[in-house]
Amino acid sequence: MAENFQDNLHCTDLVHYLPNHLAISLLNKKRWHLALVKINCSRALLSLLNEILAKHNKISMLPASARLLISIDLAISLLNKKRWHLAFVKINCSRALLSLLNEILAKHNKISMLPASASFLISIDQPREHTCCFSSVNQTILSKIVKEKNHDELFKLGGAKRIAVSLKTDANHGIDGATEDIFIRQKEFGSNTYSKPPTMGFLHFILEAFKDPTILILLACATLSLGFGIKENGPKEGWYDGGSIFVAVFLVISVSAISNFRQSRQFDKLSKVSNNILIEVVRNGRRQQMSIFDIVVGDIVCLKIGDQVPADGLFLDGHSLQVDESSMTGESDHVEIDRDRNPFLFSGTKVSNNILIEVVRNGRRQQISIFDIVVGDIVCLKIGDQVPADGLFLDGHSLQVDESSMTGMNTTWGEMMSTISRDSNEQTPLQSRLNKLTSSIGKVGLAVAFLVLVVLLVRFFTGNTTDENGNKEFNGFGKTKVDDVISGVLGIIAAAVTIVVVAIPEGLPLAVTLTLAYSMKRMMSDQAMVRRLSACETMGSATTICTDKTGTLTLNQMKTTKFWLGKECVEGKSYISIPTGVLELLHQGVGLNTTGSVYVSTASVFEFYGSPTEKAILSWAVLELNMDLEKVKRNCSIVHVEAFNSEKKRSGILMKKNEDDTIHAHWKGAAEMILAMCSHYYDLEGNVNHLNNFERMKFDQIIQGMAASSLRCIAFAYKQVLEVEHVIPSGRPKIQDHGLTLLGLVGLKDPCRPGVKKAVEDFQHAGVCVKMITGDNIFTAKAIATECGILRLNEEMDDGLVVEGVEFRNYTEEERMEKVDKICVMARSSPFDKLLMVQCLKKKGHVVAVTGDGTNDAPALKEADIGLSMGIQGTEVAKESSDIIILDDNFASLATVLRWGRCVYNNIQKFIQFQLTVNVAALTINFVAAVSAGEVPLTAVQLLWVNLIMDTLGALALATEKPTMELMGKPPVGRTEPLITNVMWRNLLAQALYQIVVLLTLQFKGESIFGVSEKVNDTLIFNTFVLCQVFNEFNARKLEKKNVFEGIHRNKLFIGIIGITIILQVVMVEFLKKFADTERLNWSQWGFCIGISAASWPIGWLIKCIPVPGKPIFSYVNWKLLRCI
C-alpha cells in the first residue's frame, strides 16, 4: 500500500507551487487573493483524497454527512452567487477535507508521505505558535541599537557583521530575495512604510469655504432675511428671499469645495509617486534597483553621494561616508560614518560629499575633512582644490592660507548656502502680479460697494424708495414698523455685500489653481513631474535655461571608443600587444578604483552596474582587456578611498597587493587633471618615460583631439609608494597625488539625444537663451554645444561665447554682469560657478531655469526661478531641491514644460480678461443705477449666480485650454511685463463698454421700449447680462486672433460648460421665478436677449483690428507726479 500511495503523490504537483501564492497574498493583504489560493488548495486536496480512497476501495470511509454538508454549502453559495461566499465555503471544505485526510493517513500510518509543501500551505489556516526565524535579534533590539546609538548593545551582538549573519545576510551577496524570505522578514520586522495622516475629506473643504468673511456676511443677511420673511409672510411665502440667498451661497461653496477636493486627491496621487524613491540593493549577488517601500530588514543597500538613506541601519563596509542629518536634528553638520566610532545610519538622511583638505598641524601635513577645519589652520592648496573657508594668503608658490577669518556659516559660501537652504518666501513673477491685481480690484469693489450702501441707505431713510406696491418703504421712525426698517436695511446690506462678492476676484485663485493642476496632470504624461505647483506658470516666463550636458543634452550611454597607451592609439586586436605589467596595473586601476560592479549570470553573460561612465570603463576592461574583476579583488586589498567629487574631478585609491604587500596609489579622473599630477608615462613597449614639457604638450594635443570629437577624456595613473608613506600622524591614510606614472587615456563617446537640436531651435525661436554648463573640458563642451545647436559653426572662443568656470569666477562683479548675457557655454565649471551664473542672470532681470542632477547642484536649483532635476540620474538631494523633475532626463521634455508653462500663463490671462469685463460691467451698472434710481437692477441671488458663472464655471472653461505651437513663437514674458497687456485692455474695455451701454439702456428705457412691467424688465437685464458673459467667454479664448472658434472642438470641457450654463440660465428664468426673482420671458424677448449678447462676437472681431502700442499703457503715466498731486 505504501508504494501505491507514493505513486499517487504525482497529483499534488500544483500544491508544491502554492506557498509562493500564499506568501504573495499575505504580502498584498488582499482577502480575495487568499481566498482563491485556498480554493485551489481544496481542489488539490479533494483530487488527492478521491484518488487515495478509490485505489484503496475506501470510498465508504468518507462520511455521508460530510459529503452532504459540502453539497449543501456549495448549493447555498451558488444560489447566492457571491464570490466571497463561495470562497469561504471552499475554505471550510478544505478544512474538512484536511481533517478527514489526516484521519485516513493516520489509520494507515502514512502521515510522513504527505508532501511538506502541502503541509505548510494547509496549516496556515490552523492556529500555530509563533516561531522566530532570527533567534538572536528582533525588531525591538535593532531599533534600540540604532535610535539610541547603543555601542554596548552593538558590541554584545558582535558588531554590524555579526548582526548581518544573524539576519541571514551574506556580506557580499545580500539576502536570498526569494518570495518566502521577503514574506518572513516583513512578517518578523514589518515593512518599510509609515502610517500617513488621514486625508482631508470633503467636509474639510466645505468648512474652509465658509471661512470667507463675505460668505459669512451673506449667510448672516440670509438668516435675518429668512426670519423676517417668515414672520411677515408666513413659512409658505416668506422663505423665498432668505432661502434663495442660502441656496445660491451653498451652490457657490459646493462647487468651490468640489474643485479643491479633487485637486487635493490629485496631489495625494502625486505625493505617492514622488515618495516612491528607487534604491540600489544587493540581493542574491546582484545589484538591483527597487522601491524604497520594498526594502526589508537584512537588505544590503549601496549608497552614493546624494542618496537618501532608505531606512535605519548599520554601516557594513565602504569608505569616506558622510551624511547630512539636518532632516533629523535640524543641524547642518555633516556626520562621518565608520564601522567603529559611528556605524549608525538614520532613515531620511542624505549622503553628503566628504572633501578631504590637506592642512599643516604641529609641523606635519595631514588630510582632514573640510568640515573639521578650524580658524587658524594652514591649508595647503593645489590646482583644482576647493578653498575650504574664507582666509588670507600667507606665503609660497603653493598658495598656502593662514588666519582663516571665518568658517562655516560665516564664510561667503556659508552665507550663500544658508540663504538658499531655507525655504524662500519669494513670490513667483505671476504670483506677485496677481496679488497686486487682486488687491487693486478688491479696493475698487469695496469703494463701489460702500458708495452704493451709503446712497441706498440715504435714499431709504429719506423716503425715496418704494415697495412693490408703490408705497414708501420708510415713513419715519414712529410710523414705520421696526421689522420693516430692519428688513429694508438688511436688503440694502445684502445688495452691497453681494457687489463685493462679485467685485472681489475670488475666482482668480481658483482659475490659477485649476489651470496649474490641469497642466500638472498633463505634464506628468509628458515626462515632467511638478513638485511645486507655481513652477508651471513660472516656467512660462523663463528667459534663460542653464542646462547640463551629460544625460540631458546627451543620452548618458557612454561607450569607450578610444584608448591611448603613451602616444599610440590602441584599437581592436591591438589590445593583445599591451605589455603584461601595464595590463595588470590597468586592471587594478579600473577594477578597484570604481563605484560600479560586474555580475556574471549563469549563462556567462556580463551585467554591469554603476554610473554610465563606470559601466563604460568596466565593460571596456572586461570585454577588451579580459579583466577578471573577482580575481583582481582577491589579489588586492583596498587601504583607503578618496571618492570622486565635482571640485577635483578625480577619484583615488590606496591598495595593497596581497602577494608581496607592495602598496600602489591609483588615480582616475579628468585627463588634464590627472596629467598635471604625472611626471612619467608608459609607452606601448611597457617602458617608463620621463614626461617633459614637449611630451606633455603632445599629450595635451591628444586630449584636445579627442575632446574636439565630442569624447570625454579619462586618464589613469598610478604610483608605487613605500609603506611608511601612507600613514600620517592622524592615522588617516594619504594617497600620493604627485609624481605619478600615466597608464593611459580613454575616450568615452556619449551621443547627443535625437531631439535635442530641434528642442534648442524651439527654445531659440521662443526667445529663450540656452546656456550649457558642464564639467567637461572646453573642447568637448564646444563640440557638443555645436552639435546641439547652442553654438554655430566657426564661432570663436575669443568672442566670449565659451568660457571656463575658473575664468568666469575670477571676473570682477562688473565684468560678470557685462558678459553673462553673451556666454553660451561654460566648461570645467563647478557647482559654485553655476550658482554664480544664476545669481548674475537674476540680477539682470532674467527668469532663470536650471537643470541639475548632482548633490552639488542643489544650491543652483534652489536659487533658480525654476529648478529642473533629472529623474533617472538625479540624486535625491537634487530632486528635493527642484521644482520640476524631468522623468526621462531628456532635454526635449524641457520644451514641453516651457510650452505648458506658457499655456498656463496664457490661460490665466484669458480668465483675467473675462473676469475684469464682468467686474467693470457689473460694478458700473449697479453703481449708476443705485445713484440715479435708488435701486440695483440685479438682486443678491442673481449676482451670486453671475459670480458662479464668472468665477467657477468660467475658470473651468478657460483654464483647461491645451498649449499650441503658436505660444512658442512669442517672446518670453520675463519679470517686468505687466500681467494685463495692452491687447487685453483693448478687448475688455470694448466689451465692458458695450455691456454697460446696453444694460443701462434697458434699465432706464426698457419698460417703455418693450412695453413690459418692471419685473419683466429686470429679468431682461439679468438674462442679457448673463448671456453676454456666455458669448464673451468665446472671445476670451483668443486674446489676439480674430477666429475665436479655432480648435474649440478639441476642448470638450469648454463646450460642456457653455451648454450647462445656458441650460441652468433657462431654468433660472423660466422655472425658478420665486428663487431668482424673475418673470418668464416669451420667444421674442429671448430672441432679443440672445441677439444683443451675440453682437459681442462681431464687436470682438472689429476691436481686434485696432492696433495697440507695444509699450504698456500705464508706462505713459507719471505715477510720482500723481502721488505728489
Automatic annotation (TrEMBL):
<dbReference type="InterPro" id="IPR001757">
    <property type="entry name" value="P_typ_ATPase"/>
</dbReference>
<dbReference type="InterPro" id="IPR006408">
    <property type="entry name" value="P-type_ATPase_IIB"/>
</dbReference>
<keyword id="KW-0112">Calmodulin-binding</keyword>
<dbReference type="GO" id="GO:0005886">
    <property type="term" value="C:plasma membrane"/>
</dbReference>
<comment type="similarity">
    <text>Belongs to the cation transport ATPase (P-type) (TC 3.A.3) family. Type IIB subfamily.</text>
</comment>
<dbReference type="Pfam" id="PF13246">
    <property type="entry name" value="Cation_ATPase"/>
</dbReference>
<dbReference type="InterPro" id="IPR004014">
    <property type="entry name" value="ATPase_P-typ_cation-transptr_N"/>
</dbReference>
<dbReference type="GO" id="GO:0016887">
    <property type="term" value="F:ATP hydrolysis activity"/>
</dbReference>
<keyword id="KW-0472">Membrane</keyword>
<dbReference type="GO" id="GO:0005516">
    <property type="term" value="F:calmodulin binding"/>
</dbReference>
<keyword id="KW-0067">ATP-binding</keyword>
<feature type="transmembrane region" description="Helical">
    <location>
        <begin position="485"/>
        <end position="518"/>
    </location>
</feature>
<dbReference type="Pfam" id="PF00122">
    <property type="entry name" value="E1-E2_ATPase"/>
</dbReference>
<keyword id="KW-0007">Acetylation</keyword>
<dbReference type="InterPro" id="IPR044492">
    <property type="entry name" value="P_typ_ATPase_HD_dom"/>
</dbReference>
<dbReference type="InterPro" id="IPR059000">
    <property type="entry name" value="ATPase_P-type_domA"/>
</dbReference>
<comment type="function">
    <text>This magnesium-dependent enzyme catalyzes the hydrolysis of ATP coupled with the translocation of calcium from the cytosol out of the cell or into organelles.</text>
</comment>
<dbReference type="InterPro" id="IPR036412">
    <property type="entry name" value="HAD-like_sf"/>
</dbReference>
<dbReference type="InterPro" id="IPR023299">
    <property type="entry name" value="ATPase_P-typ_cyto_dom_N"/>
</dbReference>
<keyword id="KW-0812">Transmembrane</keyword>
<keyword id="KW-0460">Magnesium</keyword>
<dbReference type="InterPro" id="IPR023298">
    <property type="entry name" value="ATPase_P-typ_TM_dom_sf"/>
</dbReference>
<dbReference type="InterPro" id="IPR008250">
    <property type="entry name" value="ATPase_P-typ_transduc_dom_A_sf"/>
</dbReference>
<feature type="transmembrane region" description="Helical">
    <location>
        <begin position="242"/>
        <end position="261"/>
    </location>
</feature>
<comment type="function">
    <text>Catalyzes the hydrolysis of ATP coupled with the transport of calcium.</text>
</comment>
<keyword id="KW-1133">Transmembrane helix</keyword>
<keyword id="KW-1278">Translocase</keyword>
<feature type="transmembrane region" description="Helical">
    <location>
        <begin position="1053"/>
        <end position="1071"/>
    </location>
</feature>
<feature type="transmembrane region" description="Helical">
    <location>
        <begin position="441"/>
        <end position="461"/>
    </location>
</feature>
<keyword id="KW-0479">Metal-binding</keyword>
<keyword id="KW-0109">Calcium transport</keyword>
<feature type="transmembrane region" description="Helical">
    <location>
        <begin position="1083"/>
        <end position="1103"/>
    </location>
</feature>
<feature type="transmembrane region" description="Helical">
    <location>
        <begin position="940"/>
        <end position="960"/>
    </location>
</feature>
<dbReference type="GO" id="GO:0005388">
    <property type="term" value="F:P-type calcium transporter activity"/>
</dbReference>
<keyword id="KW-0547">Nucleotide-binding</keyword>
<feature type="transmembrane region" description="Helical">
    <location>
        <begin position="916"/>
        <end position="934"/>
    </location>
</feature>
<keyword id="KW-0106">Calcium</keyword>
<dbReference type="Pfam" id="PF00690">
    <property type="entry name" value="Cation_ATPase_N"/>
</dbReference>
<feature type="domain" description="Cation-transporting P-type ATPase N-terminal">
    <location>
        <begin position="159"/>
        <end position="230"/>
    </location>
</feature>
<protein>
    <recommendedName>
        <fullName>Calcium-transporting ATPase</fullName>
        <ecNumber>7.2.2.10</ecNumber>
    </recommendedName>
</protein>
<dbReference type="Pfam" id="PF00689">
    <property type="entry name" value="Cation_ATPase_C"/>
</dbReference>
<dbReference type="InterPro" id="IPR018303">
    <property type="entry name" value="ATPase_P-typ_P_site"/>
</dbReference>
